[in-house]
Design brief:
The complex is a heterodimer. By secondary structure, chain A is mainly β. Chain A contains no helices and eleven strands. In chain A, the strands form two sheets. In chain A, strands 2, 4, 5, 9, 10 and 11 form a six-stranded mixed sheet that branches. Chain A has a five-stranded antiparallel sheet with strand order 1-3-8-7-6, with no helix packed on it. In chain B, about 0% of the residues lie in helices and about 65% in strands. Chain B contains no helices and eleven strands. In chain B, strand 9 and strand 10 form a beta hairpin. The chains are: A mainly beta, B mainly beta. At the A-B interface, strand 4 and strand 5 of A face strand 5, strand 9 and strand 10 of B.
Chain lengths: ~110, ~120
């Protein structure tokens, strides 16, 4: 079945780049998402990429997709303390409504 | 406007109470979702409505009863809940075209505590 895996914790220094990694299993056409969740808040959609793309850049965010290895990464340039949050990788199969979420990566940014 | 609103923000209820959670969006989205999220876990899908009809029920206990009165509103009626139902309840909405959904936009959630 479908599964999304990601590392659980990442710590970086303010100003450095952060790279959060994710793997997925669905081999059909799919959208892949990155959501950010701050404590006590809902999920904020950061960016997304379709499975036939290799890369997408949006200001400080760069998404890279390795289709062969089913590996997705989110790079945050010039990481700030306000970027501290949980980041969820998620996959939506084009055939339905169910979004499969990874367990979430907790990003901690040290000042 | 990509806003989904949810009320109340916090809710404390006893196991014999009846309460409702409300969700609203004005993005013209025709798919709406309820999720349950426990601490430090990803959201778990509960229900999906598509064009105001219940499309998915993820085997949710009947003490949770969803309702979609119109294309902008989604309710979750709660009755006889258990303490383990305490969680953050998230509403989301998305576009839907030809039977498939697109990226979901989430509300801020209702923090529910069952005593």
């Amino acid at each position: 079945g479908e599964d999304v895996e990601q590392s659980l914790f990442l710590s970086v220094r303010e100003g450095d780049s952060s790279v959060i990694n994710c793997t997925y299993t669905d081999s059909s056409s799919t959208y892949l998402y990155w959501y950010k969740q701050e404590p006590g808040a809902g999920l904020q959609l950061l960016t997304y990429i379709f499975s036939n793309m290799d890369m997408k850049q949006d200001q400080r965010l760069t998404v890279l997709l390795n289709k062969k290895d089913k590996h997705l990464s989110l790079r945050i340039a010039d990481t700030q303390t306000g970027d501290s949050a949980i980041y969820f990788c998620a996959e939506l199969n084009t055939g339905g409504f169910k979004t499969i979420f990874g367990a979430g990566t907790r990003l901690f940014v040290k000042a | 406007d990509t806003e989904v609103t949810q009320t109340p923000k916090h809710l404390v209820m006893g196991m014999t109470n009846k309460k409702s959670l409300k969700c609203e969006q004005h993005m013209g989205h025709r798919a709406m979702y309820w999720y349950k999220q426990k601490a430090k876990k990803p959201p778990e899908l509960m229900f999906v409505y598509s064009y105001e009809k219940l499309s998915i029920n993820e085997s949710v206990p009947s003490r949770f009863s969803p309702e979609c009165p119109n294309s902008s509103l989604l309710n979750l009626h709660l009755h006889a809940l258990q303490p383990e139902d305490s969680a953050l309840y998230l509403c989301a909405s998305s576009q839907e075209r030809r039977g498939r959904a697109y990226e979901q936009y989430f509300g801020p959630g209702t923090r529910l505590t069952v005593t």
